[in-house]
Design brief:
heterodimer, A: mainly alpha, MetI-like fold, 13 helices, B: mainly alpha, two-stranded antiparallel ribbon, 72% helix, 4% strand
Chain lengths: 274, 301
Amino acid sequence: MNSKKNTIILTIVGILLAIIFLSPFYIVVVNSFKTMKGIFIDTMGLPFGKYFDFGNYPIAFERLDFLSAFKNSLIITIFSTVLIVLFASMSAWQLVRTKTWYSNLIFMLFAASMLIPFQSVMLPLVSLMGKLQFLNPAGLVFMYIGFGSSLSIILYHGFVKNVPLELEEAATIDGCNIVQTYGIVVFPLLKPITVTVSILNIMWIWNDFLLPQLTINKPEWATIPLKMFFFFGQYSKQWHLALAGLLISMLPVVVFYFFAQKQIVQGVMAGSIK
Amino acid sequence: MKKSKLSFGLFVAPSLIAFFIVVIIPTISGVLMSFTNWNGIDNNPEFVGLSNYVKVFTLDMVKTNFLTVEFEMPRFVNVFLFTAQFAVVSVLLINFFGFSLALLVTRGLKGSNLLRSIFFIPNLIGGLILGFLWQFIFTKVFNNIGNVLGIEFLKGWLSTTSTGFWGLVILLSWQMSGYMMIIYIAAIQNIPTSLFEAADLDGANFFQKMKNIIMPLVAQAFTVGLFLTLSNSFKLFDQNLALTNGGPYLSTQMLALNIYRTAFMQQDFGQGQAKAVLFLIAVAAITLTQMSISKKKEVEY
């Protein structure tokens, strides 16, 4: 009896918390369909009558240059993530399999660098990249590989340690060279941790603002957060447009979450245990 | 033997080269730059000793109150104290909420999976976008509700230091609690159910189970959770920029934003880099201290 009462109370608490967590999204959605005056009069109610306005969306979509920003974000995120996955798994595999003082040292270096905050290196980094003519999307991908390596290698390292050596030995006996062994035998075995590494990198790179802001100086290269920043700067007093822009910017992630929810949650879990 | 060294090199090189150019070289040159009059463009900056560090602690003084005594301190110290205060409050709240949510959704209630999904959503969205979103909520929605219901407390949020502070805390707690929840769920689910069955046989209540089973076995997850929230709150930039932009009167500016502004607004790269080096030392020292204390606690259990 008591436990039934508990269940009801906890369910109610859960529902209330869910409402609190979702209410900011409700607020953006309803107000993005209102006119400026509609927002001024009431920020909580549904859009209705003469205060309803769908027109915010076409305007925001166009001024955000959303298709171009989406394309840039997508290209940069995909290239960075694929290369991080490839390079980090290659490194981690060899770092585990080669038992020498320098493989330990390299791994320790990757691990220790997790403590370095981005703002501590950003000024010399931007200056160095400028000298290398690397302040462009390709340079940005390169920088993501540099920053993404540490955590990705740590995760792969932990996983490879538990992969039995026998399979690789068998492959070598069958005449595989090291590239074949990696490509045919090792990499497929790493699939679970590859999903984790990919998810964690996608979430970070897609949403990153400061690094693109410092490295991308042409509007046609701008990613979604960058476009959003400039858009918001221009329309911050016009909340009806700003909110429509915010919702458009959030949509790709929410759609992605809808389809890859299980992988995302498992990725975060697996990523935190290390 | 030679062949294996070569293949080791080939496999490790791509990550290692990118990592060296992007992280290691800038870290080292950053420390060196902080002792020069570097302006961001000049190729041959001059050595100026500690003068950038002296600037950090002597230029730009701000008046503050402590226990009704008014005195001046360097802005950077003020910013550091604000950031530290923010970090302490956020770390405690986020981990408390995250752990509570994890307990709630692991009790086998109907709809637990849906609740998990909902609590996790804010994490997926970038800090910049969330900062703008909450700026609307704090300034417009709060005001509106305050006007309608006549609640003075809800008016004028983000226009004072304390509402700016709590605005940032609420934003980050809302964003990160779901992430911590996932980490604590993983830990709670790893506890063998036989322990709970044994406890039930002994007639243990929820609080006894909490103290004797859950807490000790989740201790490791707390180390991770505290580390992630502590370093994230210390390094907060996007949310700070988007929500309060450091205002009013730079009173809610945090370390990362202050460093950025010193370099790019005041065009003082030398001083900005000196602050960046101090920032590096502070973040490393604080997170390492936290890790070693947490690890010790883990062993005690």
